[in-house]
Design brief:
Strand content: 5-15%
Number of helices: 4
Strand order of the largest sheet: 1-2
Shape: flat
Order of helices and strands: HHHEHEEE
Number of strands: 4
């Protein structure tokens, strides 16, 4: 065996010092993050949500120019008009929803018609007064252009 120096052998101690200090820094960072993690888990609590309804009422009172304690400005009057419009629209929409629910929606009463069956024509003539939609067989939708195509067999 020869006394040749190893590949990574050096007589200078700077490499060993840098390994020691970098391992110390990594160890300190690891301990710090572990401490933070333990404290976060131990003291962990969900934060309270703010009371949004009270805040909304507070802001609404500040934007209402009819309030005696609020300064009337053109901007407040504009906001008040917009707020009144939204309230009116919301009431109208809720009334429309109620009226739609009370009324029955029209039902589709449809039938298919195919020209190659004689029974199809007889059924159509017999029940025409009960139908409001007829679906003929010769209408197709082109899957590429999504346009309506008619393919009527002349025979």
């Amino acid at each position: 065996m020869s006394n040749a120096p190893q590949v990574f052998q050096t007589s200078n101690p700077t490499r060993w010092k840098s390994v020691k200090w970098s391992s110390r820094v990594v160890l300190v960072l690891l301990l710090f993050s572990l401490t933070v993690l333990v404290l976060a888990v131990r003291n962990g609590a969900n934060p309270n949500m703010p009371n949004l309804t009270d805040k909304a009422k507070y802001y609404q009172s500040k934007l209402d120019p009819s309030n005696r304690l609020t300064f009337t400005s053109p901007l407040n009057k504009k906001f008040k008009g917009f707020k009144d419009f939204l309230d009116k629209k919301q009431k109208e929409d809720s009334l429309k929803k109620l009226s739609i629910n009370k009324l029955k929606a029209p039902q589709i009463r449809g039938a298919f018609y195919v020209p190659w069956q004689q029974a199809s024509l007889f059924d159509l003539q017999k029940n025409a007064d009960k139908l409001n939609t007829i679906y003929p067989e010769w209408f197709f939708i082109d899957p590429i252009s999504f346009k309506l195509q008619t393919r009527i067999d002349s025979a």
